[in-house]
Amino acid sequence: MKKLFWILAGIALCACDSGSGSEPPKTEGGSGFEPSTRNGRIVCALADAYAEFESTDKLPSSIEVDGETLDKGAWWEAAARLLLLMTNAESGWEETELTLEGYAAPAEPTKFDTFPADEMPIGALCYQSEAQLNFASGRGTFANYCTFSKTGYTAPDGTTYEGQMSFDRAAVIFMRAFAHYKEHGQLPERLSSWPSDFLHPTLNCDPSDATVTAALAGAVAGKSTLREKAEAIFLYVRDHVEYEYYENTSYGAAGTLSGGKGNCCDHAHAVIAMARAAGIPTRYVHAEATYPSGTVYGHVWAELYLDGVWYLCDATGKENTFGNHENWVSFVLNSKLAELTF
Q1: Sheet holding 282-290, edge to edge
Q2: For 100-143, what is each residue's pLDDT tens digit?
């Protein structure tokens, strides 16, 4: 998914400062960056961590710079402060002394991630950096997420953003921005906001499991395009797995496919494992859904990414179709996730 990330590139916070945010100063040329100071070496360490992240889909718990270990809270703080310096053309960011306050990472760093845009301007990342630093300065710990609103950050083209960006999602975007800087000698004007490539195995969802790959082979036989395969995967799970009520995950992707039953979590595991095995980026959606009776339940479904669009795939209702739902009326979003932890 590295190419896709760069193609895309072309908590509630009680007091998020308003502002338009900074955009990256241009540098001549576009040659790679060679660090000469601690600040530069932190940037390069996070750029190297991003290369590892692309292979593992896991954030580093710490990085080593000049013999010093920076834990997750420390390197996140360093990234936020350095980004703000780098987008200030007058700062002399490499030589400016970087003081870290020792803020802690939050307890639930992926919670309530609802930021909808697949890409974002660098100024939006600066906005959440400043907001998070302001939050942490009075509490000693970062927030689980930063809230964007129409009255907060405004991009140079007039675009506003809404939704919540989780701490971990921002961490990935920091590393992605610094990887671009290390390679090109300047920050990108825009970049992918994806927190994952949505293809790796995750808890209860292993695309390489033999049961998953066998089900996939049967589902997509005779299908050639990714769209055809995506629809076939959805229909296979919808038609082969019966709904069974219980809370949270019980069987996982393989157990759901082999046993032919599962709740919404397990239906989603099955769809997502098969789709990822087919090379289709796929994520979990966790929400509070309102049903025709008026009752509200926690609900989980899959979203598949095809041709620049996320398609809703809720295989729990036999009346549902690819990209559409009929078994519930509306929802309030909790999070969109690469991994479902419950």
Answers
A1: 309-313, 296-306, 282-290, 330-337
A2: 999 999 999 998 999 999 999 999 999 999 999 999 999 999 99
- Are 227 and 311 contacting, i.e. CB atoms less than 8 angstroms apart? no
Dihedral angle, C-alpha 129, 135, 137, 138, nearest 10 °: 180
Give the number of other CB atoms < 10 A from CB of residue 144.
21
- Give the mean model confidence (pLDDT) for residues 67-73: 98
Residue pair 171/78 in contact (Cβ under 8 Å)? The answer is no
Place of tokens 């990714």: 226
Q: Is-contact 174 181, C-beta < 8 A? A: no
Instruction: Please answer whether residues 65 and 54 qualify as being in contact, where contact means their C-beta atoms are separated by less than 8 angstroms.
Output: no
CA distances from 38 to 33, 87, 260, 321 (A): 14, 18, 55, 54
Cβ neighbour number for residue 54 with a 10 Å cutoff: 16
* Ramachandran assignment for 237, one of left (phi > 0), alpha (psi -120 to 50 degrees), beta (any other): alpha
User: What pTM was computed for the model?
Assistant: 0.88
Closest CA to 185 of 273, 94, 114, 107: 94
CA distance to 39, 67, 81, 174, 177, per residue, from 44 (Å): 9, 15, 15, 11, 11
CATH 3.10.620.30 correct for 210-337:
yes
Cross-strand bridge partners of residue 298: 288
Residue 254: count of CB within 10 angstroms of its CB: 21
| Other CB atoms within 10 Å distance of the CB of residue 189 | 14
The structural domains of the chain, with segments of one domain joined by +, span 2-192, 210-337
Supply 215's token pair: 């089900």
Q: Please report, as a single letter, which amino acid is at residue 257.
A: L
Give the pairing type, strands 190-192 and 282-290. unpaired
